[in-house]
């Protein structure tokens, strides 16, 4: 296939008489995920980002959702389904059944993450990487292997993907998200610029509960110490103030 290198689709439109303009919504047409590890990883990436950005309405994050990008506006040609992607500067419409570039103002993802497997690793590292670089012009591309824990990231610079240098912790910076991507407990997670792990809603609730329990224990300890002091003062027949 021959692909256009333009970020938008307008420059490569053919004569309008040859274009098929589809009606209705485009449903995602992606195959089942490779394993439960892949499913859990994708859900984790979506869940953490949406929880962190819960007050924002200017992004769309999705997993295993088809992106249609045919210059002829046809569903039957030029489509890909990244494992995870984020589009910035768009409406947060959770009801989208796919991402149709020509219906979204020509927007492509700002960030894409592919979850590697034995059957997809070569395509993710070669063919898809080329498409995301030359056609999508996606600023950040990452891949992660949940089995080997291989993690790599690229930043688009002057039209070419350049490797992102890892930190001492092995984290990779995404300027699109303003977050690090790194491995924690054998999973790909986000970290803030200050190095804090971005929690899931469940982790946040658990942490809050732990903090409440710690405060309860500290209060009980203070009350116990006061009671002991009063008992000692009473024994010395010293009236407490």
TrEMBL record:
The entry's keywords: Coiled coil
Superkingdom, natural source: Bacteria
Putative restriction endonuclease domain ranges (all copies): 21-182
Coiled coil: 205-239
Protein name per UniProt: Putative restriction endonuclease domain-containing protein
Keyword Endoplasmic reticulum: no
Hydrolase found in the keyword field: no
InterPro entries assigned: Nuclease_put_TT1808, Restrct_endonuc-II-like, Uma2
Organism: Aphanothece sacrum FPU1
